[in-house]
Amino acid sequence: MWTVIYIAPTAKIADRIKQRLTEEGFLVQARPINMTKNQFEILVPEGEVEEVQEVLNSILHRT
């Protein structure tokens, strides 16, 4: 089962996060949730949530 770990405010940020998490070896999906605001959900498999959150925090603090 896939779990939302982040709501990206733009497609560019969603793509950057997806790319970085994929480079770290995680399975990642990004899907639009609000096209008028251009927001995207970042999803990962349920079993990887804790590990991905640690990596995501480091990604978000660097950008």
Layout: helices, strands, pairs:
Elements: E1 2-8, H1 11-23, E2 29-34, E3 39-45, H2 49-62
Antiparallel strand pairs: 1-3, 2-3
Tell me what the structure shows.
The protein is of the alpha+beta class and 63 residues long. The protein has one domain: Alpha-Beta Plaits, CATH 3.30.70. The protein contains two helices and three strands, in the order βαββα. A three-stranded antiparallel β-sheet has the order 1-3-2.
Give structural attributes.
43% helix; Alpha-Beta Plaits; 3-stranded antiparallel sheet; 2 helices; alpha+beta; 63 residues; 3 strands
Show unreliable segments.
none
In total, the number of domains comes to 1
State the major sheet.
3 strands, antiparallel
CATH topology: Alpha-Beta Plaits
